[in-house]
Amino acid sequence: MSGNGDTPRGRVKRRAFLGGAAALGAGAAIDRTIGGGGTNEARAAEPAPARPIAFEGAHQAGIATPSPKHAIFAAFDSIAPSRAELAAALEALSDRARRLTRGYDALLGAPGEGPTPDSGIVGPQVAPDGLTVTIAVGASLFDDRYGLASRKPRHLKPMTTFPDDALVAAECHGDLMLQLCANGEQTLLNALRDLMRATRGALAGRWKIEGFLPQPRESGAPRNLLGFKDGTANPDIRNPVDMDRVVWVGRDAGEPGWALGGTYQVVRIIRNRVEFWDRVARSEQELMIGRDKGTGAPLGKRKEGDDPDYKTDPKGARIPMDSHIRLARPRTAETEGSRILRRGFNYSRGLDMSGQLDMGLVFCCFQADVERQFEAVQKRLAGEPLIDYVVPTGGGYFFAPPGARDSQDWVGSGLLA
Amino acid sequence: MLRWLLPACALAVLAVAGCGGGGHDSGSKNPPAQPYSKRSTVPGVVRQVTPADYKAPIADYRRYVRRRLGTLGGQVAALRAAIARGDLGAARSAWTRADATYESIGAAYGAFGDLDAAVNGRPAGLPGGVRSADFTGLHRVELALWERRSTRDAARPAAQLSRAVARMRAQVARLEIDPLEYSLRAHEILEDGIHLQLSGQASPWSGSALVALRAEVDGTGVVLDTLAPLIARRDSTDALPQARRALKRLTNALDGLARSDGSLPRWDQLGQRDRERVDGLAAGAAEQLAYVPELIDPRPARPAQRPFGESG
Predict the structure, then answer these.
(1) Between A237 and which of A64, B54, B119, B223 could a Cys-Cys bridge form, CB atoms 3.0 to 4.6 Å apart?
(2) CB-CB under 8 Å, B308 with A92
(3) B36 lies in a domain?
(4) Are A361 and A346 in contact (CB under 8 A)?
(5) Is some CB atom of chain B closer than 8 A to the CB atom of A357?
(6) Smallest Cβ distance to B309: which of A108, A112, A203?
(7) ipTM score of the complex?
(8) Using a CB-CB distance cutoff of 8 angstroms, which residues of chain A are in contact with residue B297?
(9) Across all residues in chain A, what is the average pLDDT?
């Protein structure tokens, strides 16, 4: 772990490693010629396929499926007065989601026929548009309201408050998380309105944030709002072995039977102090991140997918020991078990009281064990120099149950049935 | 002609057991589908609702409004008396009662024209906002009693309020309520409550949204009572009982928030869970109520129009 914890909060820490910047020039010049081994290069923001992404399956869609351009993360609390009505609400979510993701002819009626079942905001034909609906439950759902305490996934708990967090209560936690992803924003809003309407008396909105990814103009991972490629070192979603190891809850995890094939979802709203960041020299930014801002390659390497090759850089002359990528994934035997599947989106939502842009990252990751994976990474990152430029303000921990098995099944049936 | 599902029913699958009414396939796991065809008559049974059919419901409602305005007159007199003796606490209590009384006659607002603004106007939309000379009525008094903690500042607007209420009482016997508007009030009173009360806009200083919403729910119930015979004539879908059940759930939730002295807490002091329950149940009830007006539309049926989704 990269100490630094005794620096007073809010004070700028980046000066501490300005010395490292000078070392970079030489190291980088040499290392760019070396090349490096490939890693699993995640290609996020791929255009989602034209055909529908199946809602049903062993695992829920929207996790090990490519990230489309837009996402909505919406947290809800249950106001259902009984377990049966909570179950009915979850069943309704799956029923509607199945329809929305498959596409259908909207029920728009005719003038004079009263409120229509569909909002009509995507016209008469609702196209799949790469829509996925991912349903996850929060720790609070397992309180004394519905008698679910004994069924709680082992590692599910309220989101931890980390030392560098500045959490806003109004955008934290929730009984339920709906993650909607699609190619178009209007598709998402149609889906959200439909799902909320179908569950209006049972689920109350708690907080919501919308995210986006850049057009796939360049190869590799999409850029975050700090201008860096983000998600390069992600496990390969096309590799089921990786997914089983990193993402899905397996038989040996000691989890309740209903949870097998599910995964823990962490959502974190991480504001970027973009004006401040833009006033930082590129070389300094790169040392904080550990990658070249242009190519996305690990510092001193040539290509985005190159291995950072920490063995040849044991003291951090090339990639500082406290750079983000090195702390997040040191690539040692001991730390590879803490890998996570990141599936974040950028966000932008107006200005704060000081007129600063409120934008950043809706960080989202999936893993089989939130403590062994996300929290281990988070602890390594504590006090990283980058923290001066990023402020976690909200989010929550959730558990995404396995997918609906067939057209009669619904997400959460194993938990509530 | 396109027939579609009745979402009131499909959506209510999570709120109430069963759907009643139509012959849906009970073997299906999906929310039951029902033809939604309130415009198409059930052969030989249903007669088109006409404006004349509204005569009795509106007359009933007018009598209700008259009684409520009598109550309001007494409450405003009590308010003025408390203000005159400088008793801020008593003035606030009287104000809260008067505001709730006025919120309980929401279906009459439009019919009173400018008088409604004189009683219930808000600063939104007035150049100058709260400083505008046109900002009068209940909420101007509210500003004085809560924000300014001043009975003195409340005296003048309370006197204006009293005169406006007196004019309303004088007009109520001749009050004309349009049948179409009256049918729409079945859900609009609550829509207003969600938009204005639960957003904190309507009573920002007193925080009395829950009291007002409670009165609006009661007022909606009165409107439904008067319309029940008309609804029953056309409704094969159980819409009215579902709407009543949804309103009852909201009422129970509101009553469950009452403190030991029976008063409701300030809306802005409610915890998140309680707020979510009220928000959710109010919106859920509005979803149910939304299907009432079409059942009793007093306008002549128009020829079937091409559904939005049909091409050609």
Answers:
(1) A64
(2) no
(3) no
(4) yes
(5) no
(6) A108
(7) 0.78
(8) 112
(9) 88
Q: How far is A206 from chain B (nearest CA, A)?
A: 8
CATH no. for residue B276?
A: 1.20.1420.20
Distance CA(A49)–CA(A186), nearest Å, equals 17
Mean pLDDT of A80-90: 97
How far is B113 from chain A, CA to nearest CA, in Å?
Answer: 27
Interface residue A113 vs chain B (CB under 8 A)? yes
| Whether the Cβ atoms of residue A361 and residue A270 lie closer than 8 Å to each other | yes
Count of structural domains within chain B: 1
DSSP strand pairing (A132-138 vs A345-351): unpaired
The reported pLDDT for the residue numbered B236 is 61
Neighbours of A239 (CB within 10 A): 13
**pLDDT, position A111:** 53
pLDDT for B304 equals 58
- Domain locations in chain A as residue ranges: 14-416
Q: How far apart are CA A383 and CA A387, in angstroms?
A: 6
DSSP letter assigned to residue A259: G
pLDDT one-digit tens code per residue, A331-390: 999 999 999 999 999 999 999 988 999 999 999 999 999 999 999 999 999 999 999 999
In-domain check, residue B81:
yes
Listed in sequence order, the DSSP H helices in A130-219 are: 185-198
Residues of chain B with confidence (pLDDT) below 70? 1-47, 235-237, 302-312
Q: Enter the tokens of residue B60.
A: 């009933």
0.90 surpassed by pTM: no
